[in-house]
Amino acid sequence: MTDLIHERPSRRVSVRELFHIDADLEVPVFEHRDEHVPEADPAYCFNPDVTLAILAGFTRNRRVLIQGLHGTGKSTHIEQVAARLNWPCVRINLDGHISRLDLVGKDTIVLEDGKQITRFQEGMVPWALRRPVALIFDEFDAGRPDVMFVIQRILEQDGKFTLLDQNQVISPHPYFRLFATANTVGLGNANGLYHGTQQVNQAQMDRWNIVASLDYLPREDEIRIVQGKVPRYADDRGRQLISSMVAVAELTRAGFAAGDLSTLMSPRTLIAWAENTEIFGDPALAFRLSFLNKCDEAERGLVAEYYQRCFDQELAESQPLRLAMI
Predict the structure, then answer these.
(1) What's the average model confidence in pLDDT over 140-166?
(2) Fewest CB within 10 angstroms: 76, 114, 180, 213, which?
(3) pLDDT in tens, 207-245
């Protein structure tokens, strides 16, 4: 892995120039792209408010938590901002198996000069703290509460990190940044949608300087993104098909909000539906395989009705679209 310790941003660029957002803000940009810098997606659609929140994290060293429903692109949003700043970025997906040793480090046995010796191998947290890296904790509310206290101190601006086993106190690099994403706002699995999430200690929630909410995109933006992901449907006829798909997705979201459905179609599932339609040549079959089969059996009739409303066709009467077949 490349040593980033001595890297610094080389210039500052206007947000208007880089993100086309009307704001008087200049952001630091690295000159070189390191192997840890995410790949930029030219078709990515930025939410202005969330983008400014993330940029505040990069520019002013604020601790930023992005909250939103699944599939809204929370982690991707941070990565795409980092990609345009050439800022090294590392994601840690938190789950019940992530332990304190994984984050902090542990003693390992290595072979040196033909002898086995014990050496401390630092975890991702101290590694990132020493470097100009944007560290993202994915699914922050799914981490074990006892483990998440490991990062309590570094949630404070310029907060130091103590390696007890090594008798070391690590001061964060001037360009270390910390972000997190969550499906909830630390209140646990309130709606039954996100099993495995935890209630986050409110003293820890209080340490996040900025909490931004990312919702699903407007219809036109969502259509454009799906067409960008599946260029086969970039023409007018393809746009009509994608528009009907987005309409179905919006109905599932409205049904979920009204309590009629226990699941909803995220942009990720919507893209999968379009990709599967390209494979099978049949939007109805692809709809079943991409979303309908994930729904509760008692709710599938209502979901099929959504499809009929948007496509003017019963779900059971679909015919393959020959033009879409490869």
Answers:
(1) 77
(2) 114
(3) 889 999 888 888 998 999 899 889 999 999 999 999 999
Domain 11-213 has CATH 3.40.50.300: yes
Task: Write a three-state SS string for 213-272.
Answer: ECCCCCHHHHHHHHHHHCHHHCCHHHHHHHHHHHHHHHHHHHHHHCCCCCCCCCHHHHHH
Alpha helical stretches, state H, 46-174: 48-60, 74-85, 100-104, 124-129, 145-148
Q: Locate the domains of the chain by residue range.
A: 11-213, 219-324
Give CA–CA dist 300/261, Å, rounded: 9
- The pLDDT assigned to 326 comes to 40
8 A C-beta contact, residue 302 and residue 291: no
Backbone angles phi, psi at 259, to 5 degrees: 85, 10
Amino acid identity of 133?
V
The two three-digit tokens of residue 277, written as one number: 């339609």
Give the number of other CB atoms < 10 A from CB of residue 178: 26
pLDDT in tens, 14-72: 999 999 899 989 999 999 898 999 999 887 888 899 999 999 999 999 999 998 877 77
The residue written with tokens 């290595």 in the block is 110
Q: How many helices (H) and strands (E) does the chain have?
A: 12, 11
**Cα(39)–Cα(172) distance, integer angstroms:** 25
pTM, full prediction: 0.78
